[in-house]
């Protein structure tokens, strides 16, 4: 198992290098000059030259990448040209917020999607299966921002059950923090639950046609034992893959939901950075997100081996 994990880590290293080059190159293709945006009304050529020298924009692009890459290896993602705050510090402030939102959203998705997928597969072709598929399609079709606005109007404005927006760190007030995150987490989780339900159903239907499931039934085992111990356990491998990928998407794709509920996470920070042409912040956020995707895939590989040790010998 250790060899299997080490192999995955070694594969991830060149992947990260290629991603970093891709991030840096695409960033330089964005229209506009960040120095002009930073200078404001003062467009004096000497001022612009000093700013370009200060932030290294006067150097060749390959040299800028090497300087940035060296800093990344040392844990330095640069300094925001708008606020003057180190990007690492900004990410350290915003990342826990988005991680909390992503974790709660994934809990909603797993709690809704996996049981619904199992029930739909077990009752294939019945009304239960039909209703589950209709609900899943609705969850995939409803835009997050619309669902978020509707929840605010009904749950917060009309019934005053939960806070409409904002964020409270768990260290300040744990239960209030949970309350402020319930609606945005539900909004994100419903779409993921729909995808997870469809994937679970498909995986379960494939497994339930296998000989060992028929054998388990022929032995007289209870249906619940056959479904959960024999079918679901063997159907988990592709489901684990999807969960890992969906969690990575949550970290990167919660922009609209964070905007609707005024949550100061990664989403708001990346939007502000793009509008302000704050290259260092955009590069840092995208790189951290890419690392998150790779780590989630690595965790999925470890889960594969734990669920099925035979995979470690591939």
Summing up helix and strand content along with how strands pair, one would put the structural category as mainly alpha
CATH architecture of the largest domain, by name, is Orthogonal Bundle
User: DSSP helix count?
Assistant: 13
Q: What distance separates the N and C termini? A: 10 Å
Q: What amount of the residues lies in strands?
A: under 5%
Order of helices and strands: HHHHHHHHHHHHH
Give the biggest beta sheet.
Answer: none
Tally of domains = 2
**Shape type:** globular
Residues in helices, as a percent range: over 70%
CATH topology annotation of the largest domain: MetI-like fold
Low-confidence stretches: none
- In the CATH hierarchy, what is the class of the largest domain? Mainly Alpha
The pLDDT mean sits at 83
CATH superfamily of the largest domain: MetI-like
The radius of gyration is 24 Å
Strand tally is: 0
């Amino acid at each position: 198992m250790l060899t299997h994990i080490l192999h995955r880590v070694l594969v991830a290293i060149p992947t990260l290098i290629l991603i970093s080059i891709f991030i840096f190159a695409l960033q330089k293709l964005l229209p506009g000059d960040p120095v002009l945006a930073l200078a404001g009304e003062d467009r004096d050529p000497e001022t612009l030259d000093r700013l370009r020298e200060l932030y290294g924009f006067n150097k060749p692009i390959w040299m800028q990448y090497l300087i940035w890459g060296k800093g990344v290896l040392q844990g330095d993602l640069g300094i925001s040209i708008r606020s003057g705050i180190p990007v690492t510090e900004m990410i350290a402030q915003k990342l826990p917020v988005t991680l909390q939102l992503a974790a709660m959203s994934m809990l909603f998705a797993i709690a809704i999607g996996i049981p619904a997928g199992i029930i739909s597969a077990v009752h294939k072709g019945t009304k239960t299966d039909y209703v589950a598929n209709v609900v899943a399609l609705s969850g995939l079709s409803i835009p997050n921002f619309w669902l978020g606005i509707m929840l605010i109007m009904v749950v917060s404005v009309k019934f005053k059950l939960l806070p409409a927006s904002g964020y409270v760190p768990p260290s300040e007030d744990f239960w209030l923090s949970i309350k402020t995150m319930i609606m945005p987490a539900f909004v994100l989780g419903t779409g993921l639950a729909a995808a997870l339900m469809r994937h679970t159903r498909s995986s379960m239907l494939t497994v339930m046609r296998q000989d060992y499931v028929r054998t388990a039934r022929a032995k007289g085992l209870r249906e619940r034992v056959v479904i959960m111990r024999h079918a679901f356990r063997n159907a988990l491998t592709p489901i684990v893959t999807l969960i890992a990928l969906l969690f990575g998407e949550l970290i990167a794709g919660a922009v609209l939901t964070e905007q609707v509920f005024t949550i100061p996470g990664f989403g708001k920070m990346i939007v502000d950075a793009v509008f302000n042409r704050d290259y260092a912040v955009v590069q840092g956020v995208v790189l951290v997100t890419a690392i998150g995707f790779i780590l989630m895939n690595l965790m999925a590989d470890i889960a594969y081996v734990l669920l099925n040790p035979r995979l470690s010998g591939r």
